Amino acid sequence: MAAGARSVRLNKFISDTGMCSRRQADQWIEAGRVTCNGAVAVLGTQVSDSDQVRIDGALIGPKKSQIYIALNKPVGITCTSESHVEGNIIAFVGHPERIFPIGRLDKDSEGLILLTNDGDIVNDILRSENNHEKEYVVRVDRPITDLSLRMMAAGVRIRGEMTKPARVTRVDPATFRIVLTQGLNRQIRRMCSALGYRAQRLQRVRIINVHLGGLRPGEWRNLTERELTGLLPSSHGP
């Protein structure tokens, strides 16, 4: 690193290029796939723009302009950036820049998911203690009782853990809306199953202040300035 150059942690340097999140960068570093100026890098390495950072031997460049898009993910698309996975979300979107999904939406679920090349925002949105809201519309296999909806709102034990309280409202006899502030693996489907129902359709319609709106399945759009203002941490700009 050149004297006087502004340095950042290696995982941030990698995520800022738009290749992946900081978490993924740490995994690559731990796996020995990252070098800095010819030497195998370690976690916590500090680098600057004057350093040569390579991943699997390929030189990575400076920070790219930040991209934030909203996609209406259809059923059958897998939320992974691994190119060998058939039906992966990155190949489906086909964005000209390297992007990755923020969090996950099950293959058999549909609706809103955000994609970006900004590794900083990923950690903020996914951090559970931030209690960011995500809203879903769920249809189950038979009429759901008011008692079941109240139990879902209060918390359901799944895999030995009680879910956090949620806001639940009925849409029709077999459909309800639920607003969660946590994201356990297949949480809504497991909550339904614990109460004796099977989720037939699960659609995410909102993430924090970003709404699915009129996006048709498979369509995506760039986030608006207003959406970014409400989505990004106050210290983090587009």
Briefly characterize the structure.
The chain has 238 residues and is an alpha+beta fold. Helices cover 22% and strands 28% of the residues.
Give Rg in angstroms: 20 Å
Overall shape: elongated
Oligomer: single chain
Helix content: 10-25%
| Residue-averaged pLDDT | 89
Low-confidence stretches: 234-238
For the report, how would you describe the main beta sheet?
Answer: 9 strands, mixed
CATH architecture annotation of the largest domain: 2-Layer Sandwich
Q: From the helix content, strand content and strand pairing, which structural class follows?
A: alpha+beta
Number of strands: 17
Q: Could you spell the SSE succession in H and E letters?
A: EHHEEEEEEHEEHEHEEEEHEEEH
End-to-end separation: 27 Å
Q: Mind telling me the CATH class of the largest domain?
A: Alpha Beta
CATH superfamily of the largest domain: Pseudouridine synthase I, catalytic domain, N-terminal subdomain
Question: Per DSSP, what share of the residues sits in E-state strands of 2 or more residues?
Answer: 25-35%
The total tally of domains equals: 3
CATH topology of the largest domain: Alpha-Beta Plaits
**Count of alpha and pi helical runs:** 7
